[in-house]
Every structure is written in C-alpha cells, then in structure tokens.
Amino acid sequence: MLPSKVTFSMQQSTSHLQIHPDELTSGTRFVRACLRRPVDRTPVWFLRQAGRYMPEYQAVRKHHSLLEICQTPALAAEVTITAAEKLDVDAAIIFADLLLPLTPMGLDFEFQAGEGPVVHQPLRTAEDIARLRTDRVSDLAYVAEAIEKVSAHFKDRIGIIGFCGAPFTLASYMVEGGNSRNYIETKKIMYRQPAVWRTLMDKLVKVLCGYVSQQVEAGADVIQIFDSWAGVLSVEDYRDFVLPHTKLLVREVQSLGVPVIYFGVETGGLLPLMRETGADVLGLDWRVPLGDTWRALDYSCAIQGNLDPITLFAEPDLIRTRVKHILQQAKGRPGHIFNLGHGIVPGTPVENVQYVVRCVRELSLEVKHG
Ligand code: CP3
Questions:
Q1: DSSP per-residue codes, 289-343
Q2: How far is the C-alpha of 332 from the C-alpha of 338, rounded, in Å?
Q3: Cα(97) to centroid of ligand 1, in Å?
C-alpha cells in the first residue's frame, strides 16, 4: 500500500506536476503512463485478455460465433468487462477483431477452427484493389456501440482501449487470404506494383481513420494499432512501403486527442523506424530485453511489455522472478506499461494471469521506492 500522502515530480522535465495518489484511478494511471507522466505504480493489462483461455468467454462462445460476439454490442461489452474485472487490470481492450474492417471494404472472410481467418477472394490484381470500398465505415458502428457500453460501465475507473490493425498487417491478410509464412503475394504487390500498393495503403488508412474516430468518440481513451506481422519486413521495406502510411494513421489518431500504442511481433530491428511513426507507446514482444531496448530508443517514447506469454504456464516463483526482472529493467521510469510480449494463448491458467497483476502491483512499488 502507498503512504496516504505522496507527491510525484516529473523526472525529466523542469515542470513539477503534483499529483495526489488518491486522485489516480486505474484509468488515469494508464493514460498518464502512455504519455510518460509519473504514476504511483506501473499500470498493467494483457494482450488478448478476453480470449479462449477464460471460462466465461468459452461459455458465451458456446452459443455464439466469434463474429456474432464482435457484432453484438451487448455481448462484446460483456466479454470485455468480465475479463477486465476478473483480472483487476488497469485497462480494458474492446472485444473485437482485427479483420472486421474487411467486410465494409467488400472482402468476405470467416474464422475456421484451427486455421485462423480465411479471406475467400484475396486481393491479387490492381482491379481487385480498385474495387475496395472506403465509404461504408459506418457499418462498423457496432464496435463503437460496444465501447459506449464499456465506458458507461467503468466510467473513468479503468482505461478503455480501442484498436485497429495497422495498414501492413491488414493488407497482408487481404492479399495472402490468411496467415502466411513468407508473405510472397503481399511483397510482390509492394515490389512490382508500388502505385497499386499505395492505393491499397491509402484506402486502408482512410477506413481505419474513420473507424478509430468512431471508437474515440464512443469513449476509447487510447488506441492500440496492431502491426502484428510487420516483423516479416526488412528495415528497407518497412521504411519505403509501410512507414509513411502508418505514420499518417498514427498522426490522424493522435489528432483525435488520444495516445497511440503501436505493437508488432519480432520487430527488434524495426523499432527505431517504428518510433518514427510518432506513436506515444511502442509495444515490445518478449524477445527483446526491455531495458536495453528502451535505452536504445533514448527513452523517447513510452514502452509496453514484455513478459513471454508462455511464462504464464510456469510455477508462481518463476513468474514472480520474471515480472520483477522486467520491472527492474524499466526502473520505475515514467512511461512503462506492463503487458505480455504477445497475446495470452488458450490453456493459460487464469489464476496465473491474476497473479501477474498482483506481482506488478506489489513489485512496481518495491522497485520504485526500494
Ligand atoms: O481481449 C482481447 O484481446 C481479445 C480481442 C481480440 C481478438 N482479436 C478476438 C479474437 C483482439 C485484440 C484481436 C486482434 C487480432 N486479431 C490480431 C492482433 C493481435 C495479435 O495477436 O497480434 C490478429 C492478428 C487477429 C486476427 C485473428 N483473429 C487471428 C490470427 C485469429 C486466430 C487466432 C487463433 O488463436 O486461433 C483470430 C480469432 C480470434 N480473434 C479469437 C479471438 C478471441 C479466437 C477465436 C475464437 O474465439 O473463436
């Protein structure tokens, strides 16, 4: 527990910001950390915190498909709220899926058990891309409606995270038709038809800006942009074909008045360029050492991460040691949000996720004041 009256001062700037800790809710703690302002303790939430590992989600899923849950605001809100309350985290990410914007753009897809998403007629030609629609973003209003419900439930108690896919990662699903190993079709368009690639990126950015602005209007405090598969790109390809478009999206989202978290997997070599998007927070996967990575970025942005999600299958002692190691690397510096280095996987014991929350609460105070 904190002493009842503690004040915090900005570490890196001359301005002193006095905050009474009683005034910090989980929501303000989370948003302040995204902006690298000092907080009393490290905020924590989990990628994929409302998924199949959770019995309450499985119970809803028994009666509804994944898309039905996403498209029914009452169900999406219920699943979001249940997970955040059960885990007692500082932020709730809205239950939705990366691929939802494909439908109003004119691409059908489904989730096939064991296979992940399947897009029935993937984009292959300039004509396919020319046909994509950008004028039906309002069809996605069900996500904003779910956010409104979550926001009405939590008020300002915890942070509410809206999200979308990044243009590259979404394009990779649209072109490959699903998960891919080598992303050959996507890279073929990038390399051989750069103008067509730009059209695809422009259309995606347009749709995503509209989609995210609905989410912010509905009450999202922060937007996370998932560039899950950006790690398949070389530094040069990321710089030439992806960075300008992602930067535009980040800037547009920030102009709505909310911080942006930008996350990708196996992005160790790309992080300096990902930083150039201007995102407020970079999400790290578990392969990179948090302390060295943050230092290499000159602490110029906030950092989210980065416990290996599979650590959640270990015994409590090891979990605690790993959590502590991450907090020690962050050294209580303003701008660390504790999370996993990728999503929680099915089969993860819920009590271990809850245990991580308790460890972060306790140990972040120890690291900060100890
Ligand atoms: O609380 C949460 O985080 C859950 C909400 C959520 C889902 N998808 C629901 C979902 C979020 C944040 C996503 C994002 C998402 N979707 C990403 C980016 C996140 C990441 O992990 O990098 C990606 C790449 C997708 C696309 C997608 N959707 C895939 C690859 C899969 C199959 C995954 C698998 O393990 O089978 C999905 C399906 C999906 N989306 C599930 C959930 C809970 C599991 C399937 C189900 O419940 O039927």
A1: -HHHHHHHTTT-SEEEEEE-GGGGGS-HHHHHHHHHHHHHHHTT-TTEEEEESSP
A2: 11
A3: 6
> Do 96 and 143 meet the contact criterion of CB atoms below 8 Å apart?
yes
The pLDDT tens digits for 229-265 are 999 999 999 999 999 999 999 999 999 999 999 999 9
Which residues are the active-site residues? 48, 52, 61, 97, 173
Query: What values do phi and psi take at 263, rounded to 5?
Result: -125, 140
Task: Give 136-146 pLDDT, tens digit per residue.
Answer: 999 999 999 99
pLDDT tens digits along 75-118: 999 999 999 999 999 999 999 999 999 999 999 999 988 788 99
Query: Which amino acid residue places its CA nearest to atom 3 of ligand 1?
Result: 48
In this structure, which residue's CA is closest to atom 32 in ligand 1?
A: 116
Question: Do residues 160 and 95 make contact, with C-beta atoms less than 8 angstroms apart?
Answer: no
Predicted TM-score (pTM) of this structure: 0.93
List, chain by chain if needed, residues with CB within 6 Å of any ligand 1 atom.
Answer: 47-52, 61, 66, 93, 95, 97-99, 111, 116-117, 163, 226, 228, 343
Sign of CA dihedral 346, 361, 17, 332: negative
Which residue type is seen at 352? N
Atom nearest to 47 CA in ligand 1 = 3
- Residue to substitute in 54, 98, 215, 261 for testing ligand 1 pocket (most ligand atoms within 8 angstroms of CB): 98
The set of residues, in sequence order, having a beta carbon less than 8 Å from that of 18 and lying 6+ positions away, is 7, 8, 9
Which domains does the chain possess?
27-369 (3.20.20.210)
Per residue in 272-306, pLDDT tens?
999 999 999 999 999 999 999 999 999 999 999 99
The beta strand positions in 7-137, using DSSP E, are 91-93, 109-112, 116-119
